[in-house]
Amino acid sequence: MGDSSDVPALRRGLAILRALAGRAGPVSAGVLARELGLPRSTTYHLLAELVAGGFVVHLPEERRYGLGVAAFELGSAYLRHDPLERLAGPVLRRLVDRVGRAAQLGVLHGAELLYLLKERPSRPQTLVTDVGVRLPAQLPASGRAMLAHLPAAQVRAMFPSSERFVLRTGRGPRNLPELRRLLAEERRRGWAVEDGVVTPGFASVACPVFDHTARPIAAIGVTFRHSCEGAGCGETWPGLAADVGEAAAELTGRISGRSA
């Protein structure tokens, strides 16, 4: 290494790792070569180097390749460094300064939403959405902002029965068909909203953050005081959603992600 000619090889090796990471299982060298537009000989050479480094594992009986232990170790190290929270912190602080309302970063943990980070305005309000709190993912806007961009089969697996549809305030989806209709609407709109679903007298707006495969990895949400009767007034707060969407797009860029 050290020669400038090694740079294209490094880029191609990284492209192979990204391609393997985006697959549900091992894949042949021929498929990788076609997908990445590489000569077969180059693909085999790069795979051999990656296998030697432990980043790729070769399954000779199947003539396929998958991610190796070294790739898993890198992913684990990434999580230990808390990069998502570190990168999101400044983004959330700027968002709070702009809108004057509390902002949170949440991720999916199974069928729950887990809050990782929260930034408060100068006059904070008491909310249930605090760091470390888990909520059923179908209730908060941040959870649905991510669910709306998951495959339908994955959403179905997360909510296999009506017992999963627990309500906190009497509002919110009560079954899978209701959730699907809500997610379809929010995906078309570009952001999710909830009005008194998590806490009476409060509403929230959220947008998804995407990884490099355009899958939702997190969501940024803003929560504020709002109260209306019945099942909700139907307000979607597009002006606030524009600010939240800008913050989510910024964080997507900071983690080298791409929007769906």
Task: Report on this structure.
- There is one protein chain.
- By secondary structure, this protein is α+β, with helices and mostly antiparallel strands.
- It folds into two domains: 8-76, Orthogonal Bundle (Arc Repressor Mutant, subunit A); 82-255, Beta-Lactamase, CATH 3.30.450.
- The chain has nine helices and eight strands.
- The strands form two sheets. Strands 5-4-3-8-7-6 form a six-stranded antiparallel β-sheet.
- Helix 1 packs across helix 3, helix 2 packs across helix 3 (40-52) and helix 5 (83-99) packs antiparallel against helix 9.
- The radius of gyration is 21 Å and the shape is elongated.
- The mean pLDDT is 88.
Concise account of the structure shown:
This is Glycerol operon regulatory protein. The protein is of the alpha+beta class.
